[in-house]
Amino acid sequence: METIDAVNKDFKAVNKTLKETLNGQQVVVKNAGHLHGLASGLKLGEVTIQGDVGDYLGVLNDGAIIKVTENAGKYMADNMTSGVVTIDGNADYGAGQYCYGGSIIIYGDAGDFTATMNKGATILVAGDVGDEVGTYMLNGDLIILGNAGENFSNYLIRGNVYIGGNWKSLGHNTRVEPLTSGDLAKLSAFFEKHEIEANLTNFKKIVAASEKPFY
Amino acid sequence: MAVIGAFCVSVNRELCINARMPGKCATCAEVCPYDVYSLDVYTGEMHIQNFNACVGCRICVEFCPANAIRINPAESEYISRYPWTFGAIEEIHHKAQTGEYLLRGFGTQTPTPNFDMITVVPSQIASPAPQDKYREECDMEVIIGEGTCERPIHLKLPFVWPAMSFGALSKEAKMALAVGAAMTGIATNTGEGGLIPDETWLSRGYTDKEFTNKQWEPGGYLVVQWSTGRWGVSVDYVNSGDGIEVKIGQGAKPGMGGHLLGAKVTEEIAEVRGIPAGSDALSPCRYYDVQSLEDMKHMVEFLRDVTNYQLPIFFKLGPSRPYADVAACIEVGADAISIDGLVGGTGCSPDLVTQGVGIPTIACIPPAVQALKDYGVHHKVKLIALGGIRNGLDAFKAFAMGADAVGFGSAAEIAMGCRVCYACHKGNCPYGITSQKPEMRARLDPFKAGEQLSNFLKATAEEIKILTMLSGHNRTIDLSTEDLRAMDLNTAALTGLKLAGYDRPLPMWENGNQPVHSHG
Description:
The complex is a heterodimer.
Chain A: E1 2-5, H1 11-21, E2 26-32, E3 46-53, E4 62-68, E5 82-87, E6 103-106, E7 119-125, E8 139-144, E9 160-163, E10 174-177, H2 181-193, E11 204-208
Parallel strand pairs in A: 1-2, 2-3, 3-4, 4-5, 5-6, 6-7, 7-8, 8-9
Antiparallel strand pairs in A: 9-11, 10-11
Chain B: E1 7-11, H1 17-20, H2 27-31, E2 37-39, E3 46-48, H3 59-63, E4 69-73, H4 77-80, H5 86-98, E5 103-106, E6 118-120, E7 142-144, E8 153-155, E9 159-160, H6 171-184, E10 187-189, H7 197-202, E11 221-226, H8 235-239, E12 243-247, E13 259-260, H9 267-273, E14 281-282, H10 293-306, E15 313-317, H11 322-332, E16 336-340, E17 346-350, H12 351-356, H13 361-374, E18 382-386, H14 392-401, E19 405-407, H15 410-416, H16 438-441, H17 446-470, E20 484-486, H18 489-495
Parallel strand pairs in B: 9-19, 10-11, 11-12, 12-15, 15-16, 16-18, 18-19
Antiparallel strand pairs in B: 1-4, 2-3, 5-17, 6-20, 7-8, 13-14
C-alpha cells in the first residue's frame, strides 16, 4: 500500500501521484486538509484520506472508492458518476451535488444544500443535515437518519427522499408518503451493507408532487 | 404565443393546385405546424381557417409546389398604436387568460443599439496604405490557450459556434454545426445539454467513431460546456472535448439558467440529461457548487486537473458589468472569455428578460477590452464577442473594438434555413432546427446544412479580409478602434469610438478609454 504525505504539496502534485500509482490498489493520503479538488476524476482504485480534507474532494469521481477518516470540506463528491465516497466525520456545505450515480455515505452530519440536483446517486447521511437539502433532485435516493432544516427537498422532481427524523419545513412540490415494502427492503439492505444501525419504523418518504412544477 | 393577426396569409387561387383541382394537393396543411390551413375531407378543398395562428415561419411558402402562397407582416408594430403595440396587447391577453408570463424563443425583437451606426475607416494617404486583398495574405488564425495548456486550439478562422444545447437544437442541427466547424477549422460547442456522440468525430472532420475516415479538412474543434445544470456531465464528457467552457450566463437571459420546456424533452434528450421525459429542464441560475471567486478558482483548477492540463478553459458571460466580470474571469484563470450581448439568442426565455435585460453587444466590448488591457492580457486571453453578429461587417467592427473572435449563433441557425419566427420554444420548428419531432427533423440534412454553414463562414471570412486589408492591415489582430467611427452620438457615447466628423471621442470618454467601473 502506497502512502502519500501531502504536507507542503499542492493538489496538482498529489493528484498526479494518485493517477500514476492507482491501478486498482490502495493508496493512503495523509495531511490533506489544505487540498481542494483532491482525487478528482478517478476511474479506479481505493484512496483513504487520513484526517480532514479540503473542498471538492473526489469531484467527477467515476469509479474510485474514496474514504475520509475525519471531516470533508465543501462540495465533496461533486458531479460523481460512479464509485463510493465515505466520510467518517462531517461534510460541509453542498455534499453530493450534481451526482449521476454511485453512493455517498456520510457517518456524521452534512451541511446546507446537500444532494442538490442529485440525478441518480444514493446519498446517506447518518447524522443531521442543514437547510435546502435535496433541492431540485431529479433522481436517485437521499437517506437521512437525523433531522433536516428549512425547505427540505425543495422542488423535488423525481427520486426518493427518506428521513428518520424531522424537518423544520418542507419545500415546494413535495408529498409525504408511507414506505412500501420495497423501500424497506432497499433501505435495510443498504444499511446492512454499510453497517449502519437504524430504526426503520419512524422513516418517512418524500416524493415529488408533480414532475412538471414550473410551466 | 403568436400575436393575433401579425401575418397576412394570402393564396393566389389562380396558381393554387388545390383551388383548381380540390383534393390534388394539401402540402400547406401537411407542413404547417400551427394548423393555419385546413383541408375539407369531403370536398378536398383547402381553406385558410386560422391565419391568426401564423407565426411567419414561411414553411408553406417553401414547400408550395405552385409557389402560390405569400406571407406578409400585417402592419408595422410601431406605426400602429404605439405604445400599445399588438405585441403589448397580446401579451396582456395571454397573461389574463392563462395566468402565466410570456415565453419566447430566438431572441429580442425590439430595436437595440447595434453595429449599424459604426462605420469602417479605410486607409488612404495619411495612414498605412491599404493591402491588396487579391494578391496579399491576411492572417486570421486565433490560438486559444497558448502557453497555458498542452493542446491549444488553433482556430483557422476567427469564429466559433456559440453554445447551443442538444435539446434547444435538434440532433441534426448539432451535427450540422459540427460538420460546418470541421470544414472550416473552427470550434463547435456542445451547449449545456450534454454530448451527442456524433459531435465528437464530426467536429474533428471524421465520419466514423473510430476516427479512421477523415472526410473534411482542416477538421475543427469541440468545446464542451460545463454549466449550472451540469446535464450529462462526467469525467469522460469533459475529456471528450478540445476545450471546456464554463457558462456563467448568456445574452438572452443573463442571471437565469437554461430553459428547456417539457415539449422538447424527448426520451433521447431525457436520457442524455438524466431527467424524466416531458419534464421541464430548468438549469439553476448559478453554480450550486460555487459560492465565491475562490471556489471558482478551485473549479478551474480541478477542470484543468481532470483533463491533465491539456485543454483551454473558456468562460461565457452574459451582458452585465463587463469590466468587473471579465476581470474576475482573468483572475480565475480563463484562456478565453465569450461575452454575449443583449441581442444574443436563446431556445426559450421569459419574454421580458429577452427584451429588457442586459446591455448591447457594442457596449459590452469596450469595458471588456479595458479589463483585458488593465491586466496586461489583451489578445493573450482571447475575447469572443457574441450576440447579434450577422456578417463580416459586424465581425470586423467587433475585432476593431478589440475582440479576437466572434460567434454566430442566430446567424448559424439562419444559415441552416431558419426564417426567424421567434417560436423556437414551442418545439415546432418546421425546418427541423429547434424541433425534436421526427417529421420536422427529417427536413434538415445535417451534411447539406453543414456545407451551408461552411459556405457562410468562408464568405464571411472573405468579407473580413476585404475590410481588414482596405483599412491597411494584414492581420485581424492589428485592427484597432482607429479603424472605426461612430455615426451618431448614441453609439459614440456607448462605445467611446471617435464620432465621425468630430473625429474625437465624446468629451466624457476623453480621459482615456476609461469609463468608471464598479462592481455594482
